[in-house]
Design a protein that fits this description.
Shape: elongated
CATH class of the largest domain: Alpha Beta
CATH architecture of the largest domain: 2-Layer Sandwich
Radius of gyration: 25 Å
């Protein structure tokens, strides 16, 4: 693939009657930001995931804005604006818990010196972007974005969609395609490999062959990414409702081993596929909860993801009733310490994880009196669900798991399952998430004067 700068010189302008996006689908807060920027004489565009999802008939999670106004100029227009970021300087316009992110157009290429600058110039090290606050125009901003489907701009001035990189065609084709040379773009930011997998799973798209080809040989560059950032990326990957598909794709492209190395090794040595079954069941459970609107916690999923690494240090790769407790605690500590070097799990999640693991040996009983004492533990419900997953995968005596399932569902003392979240009133109407390619070219029946 060619350099991003050579991909397009003139954008494709998709007029209002040729696309499906309407102002009625955009949040009032985002419209306020767009119009205030426009009325102040600046360019104002809805950009990225908001345009992508609206074009697919989905409800966007966020509405992000791009403009030629600098962060300081944006701040001067909004008293409720805060400037954040070092690597990318952004303006956040706040309305209570709602935030509209406003980004200034960025330049495509770094300055000639390419050195650190106290004013926040673009800084690269070994090809990786460390800081990028060099401002440019809309064409440069579009072509420096990662994927074509995220480089679509909805222009509030005339309600058109501006497409510099063929993103609309890729949306219709169901294709994830990087802008520019994939190896160069991955070197700039290795997390783009994870984003390719995430978007493919989220949208049900296929990763373009040229975009996918370098991933296995460049997966090790994830070792250069801070562990705290990888934690955030794992949450996006595995806790968005498509965890099973994402997990399979991460393994297929050789990325999972750089997120959970000890677990990946355990899965490679898992002759009976019990550990793989266990993880698949855990991911399926999380996906169901997310898609049903029930609360989920990273502690449970991370406890499952690291469990295979713990079991490989124990005899027979399963937790027996007569397990040496000291050996078990040592295995837990070592597995967690190794994992934290790769993905930084905050203590607020690491501590509940340890409690879930610590309760597993206590389930090796069929005494009702002992079982009732576990009911009062604050992690009982999570640890009990964990036990059932182990039973489904054959990592614990199935009869023991069935005994606990019967006892927990029939005992009046057992804590109830976690209820589903209440949906917020007044939220935007959810659109059909399964939009066909034909819908991308069908405008609204009533364009609302746009």
């Amino acid at each position: 693939m060619s350099d991003p700068q050579s991909l397009a010189t003139q954008p494709t302008i998709i007029a209002r009657d040729e696309h499906v996006i309407s102002r009625s689908q955009i949040s009032e807060r985002a419209l306020t930001v767009l119009y205030r920027l426009k009325n102040a004489g600046y360019g104002a565009y809805l950009v990225g995931g908001g345009v992508r999802d609206l074009s697919l008939g989905r409800e966007p999670k966020d509405f992000d804005v791009a403009t030629d106004a600098t962060p300081e100029q944006v701040k001067s227009l909004f008293r409720n604006c805060r400037l954040i970021g070092r690597r990318f300087r952004l303006a956040h316009v706040h309305w209570g818990p709602d935030i509209i992110e406003v980004a200034t157009f960025r330049a495509l290429h770094p300055p000639a010196a390419d050195e650190a600058d106290n004013d926040g110039e673009r800084v690269l090290e070994d090809g990786m972007i460390l800081r990028d606050n060099v401002y440019g125009n809309i064409e440069e901003d579009a072509l420096r974005r990662d994927f074509t489907i995220n480089a679509l701009y909805y222009n509030i001035a005339d309600f058109s969609v501006v497409d510099y990189a063929g993103g609309m065609a890729d949306l219709k084709a169901g294709r994830i395609r990087l802008i520019g040379e994939p190896a160069v773009r991955y070197r700039e930011d290795p997390v783009r490999m994870l984003r390719a997998v995430r978007f493919a799973a989220k949208l049900g798209f296929v990763i373009d062959a040229d975009t996918a080809a370098p991933i296995p040989r460049m997966a090790d560059t994830l070792d250069d990414i801070p562990a705290a950032r990888l934690f955030d990326e794992v949450l996006k990957l595995l806790m968005a409702g498509q965890g099973v598909e994402t997990f399979e794709s991460l393994r297929q492209h050789g990325l999972f081993r750089y997120l959970f190395p000890a677990t990946d090794t355990a899965l490679d040595d898992d002759v009976d596929a019990q550990l793989l079954t266990f993880l698949a069941r855990a991911l399926e459970s999380t996906d169901r909860r997310v898609n049903d609107g029930r609360p989920v916690t990273p502690a449970f999923l991370f406890a499952a993801l690291i469990w295979p690494a713990i079991l490989t240090q124990l005899p027979g790769a399963r937790l027996q009733g007569d397990i040496n407790r000291e050996l078990f605690e040592q295995s837990v500590t070592e597995a967690l310490e190794r994992q934290l070097r790769q993905v930084a799990i905050p203590k607020r999640f690491a501590l509940p994880m340890r409690e879930i693991w610590a309760l597993q040996p206590r389930f090796d009983t069929r005494s009702e009196s002992k079982a009732r004492r576990l009911f009062s533990h604050p992690r009982f419900r999570a640890a009990y669900d964990f036990l059932l997953l182990r039973g489904e995968a054959g990592l614990v005596d199935p009869e023991l798991a069935r005994w606990w399932e019967h006892f927990a569902t029939t005992s009046e003392d057992a804590p109830p399952p976690t209820p589903a979240r209440r949906r917020r009133r007044g939220g935007r109407k959810r659109r059909n998430p399964d939009a066909s390619a034909a819908q991308l070219t069908q405008p609204d029946s009533d364009p609302a004067g746009e």
